[in-house]
Design brief:
The protein is of the alpha/beta class. The chain is built from 13 helices and 15 strands. The protein is globular, with a radius of gyration of 21 Å.
Length: about 400
């Protein structure tokens, strides 16, 4: 008998993968299986062409005309690290200022804190409201003459709220600051045209809404910022091996070492799947899922909805991704997660979700956080029904 498994943790990674994704990964291993840019034989050249083709398709998906401005990394944290350290590379940063938001992932917050400690960087965290919404005017007020970089998390991995990039783009158009967007939770769920928005650095892993396998992320850089970027690290590039001092191109340095060929191949299949689907249809369906779950949570006095899916008005031009979180007056978030898994086979995320600054604004316990349910392109209505069942079970635990 197959053990029941209801997967509601797509904000961590998508599962199950859509048709063709796992097959692309296996096919790479069986048919190619060689290192990228490390040979002149036929299968090595086929591998390089495949990597280039996926890079081009990702560029089209993002509205980027030149795919050579996309650099692969091994995961989202390394993409964030590469982007920030490429843009802010001086040894003395005391004259530099960065603006970011309270909704950011710890990969951003910890990197900035480390730069402050080691190299004197000054940085400002713009607050969000109790739903995870960042007022664009608050971000404008945080800018100063020394602001070098503005970092914005496109979609919260706790509340699902999507920030208004159009308004932020208008504000930053009149600024000398560069603009970085973390699209880890939004890509594949929200349309994003990097070029039209004027985003200088876009970072994201490819295993969440883009449906690829774990092990690949990317940094996409604008034409205007590339001449100013410095290599965040350097290593084996597969060319000019006698040269130790460079200079090495920005993308070449970011991609030092072996790329994850099977994972990039799977991204190609994920992009093919997404291009075959209707994004508006998915957005309507997932909005209905979130509405059903929020309604069920509100029915129970001992459960508390984190953020309000209905609170963001049209005047703020906000949307959301399929993420919803809640807490219990009787159980910790970890106890809720363990109970759902053991009793019903429901897998969802508990804790702070690697978002260390947002909880002070949401009113959630700064040590316990919240239970998060997140949905994706392979979620079914029966999965949502199981989520409702799980919420009812949690509501019965009263102290």
């Amino acid at each position: 008998m197959t053990e029941r498994r209801i997967y509601l943790d797509h904000a961590a990674t998508s599962w199950p993968k859509p048709p063709g994704v796992l097959e692309a990964c296996i096919d790479f291993q069986q048919q190619l299986g060689v290192a990228v840019s490390r040979g002149a034989y036929r299968r090595a050249e086929r591998t390089d062409r495949m990597i280039g083709d996926v890079r081009t398709r990702l560029g089209r998906f993002l509205g980027i005309s030149d795919p050579q401005r996309i650099a692969w990394t091994s995961n989202g944290t390394m993409a964030i690290h590469a982007a920030i350290h490429s843009a802010i590379w001086e040894s003395d940063l005391r004259g530099q200022h960065v603006v970011t938001t309270a909704t950011e992932h710890n990969s951003v917050l910890r990197t900035l804190a480390d730069l402050q400690k080691r190299r004197g960087l000054r940085w400002t965290i713009v607050p969000c409201d109790e739903h995870g919404w960042v007022d664009p005017e608050s971000l404008r007020a945080a800018l100063c003459e020394e602001t070098r970089l503005v970092i914005v998390n496109h979609a919260s991995n706790v509340t699902g709220i999507v920030q208004d990039l159009n308004s932020l783009s208008s504000i930053l158009a009149g600024s000398n600051a560069w603009w970085m967007v973390d699209a880890a939770q939004s890509l594949g769920y929200v349309e994003l045209d990097v070029q039209s928005l004027g985003i200088d650095l876009l970072v994201a892993p490819t295993h969440k809404g883009l449906c690829g396998m774990l092990g690949t992320a990317f940094v996409a850089a604008s034409q205007r910022i590339i001449p100013h970027l410095q290599s965040p690290w350097v290593g084996g590039t597969g060319r000019s091996s006698i040269d130790w001092t460079g200079p090495f191109g920005w993308r070449e340095s970011v991609e030092s070492g072996n790329l994850n060929g099977p994972s990039i191949a799977s991204l190609g299949a994920g992009l093919h799947f997404l291009n075959s689907q209707s994004l508006p249809d998915f957005q309507r369906a997932s909005a209905g899922w979130i509405e059903r779950i929020a309604k069920e949570i509100r029915r129970h006095q001992n459960l508390h909805l984190v953020g309000n899916p209905d609170a963001i008005g049209s005047s703020k031009q906000a949307s959301r991704v399929p993420v919803i979180s809640f807490s219990s007056r009787s159980l910790s978030s970890h106890e809720m997660a363990m109970l759902l898994d053991s009793a019903l086979g429901i897998e969802c995320r508990s804790g702070l979700h690697c978002a260390g600054a947002i909880h002070a604004h949401l009113g959630t316990d700064p040590k316990d956080g919240a239970l998060r349910m997140s949905f994706g392109h392979t979620t079914t209505e029966s999965d949502v029904d199981a989520a409702i069942e799980g919420i009812r079970l949690l509501s019965q635990v009263v102290t």
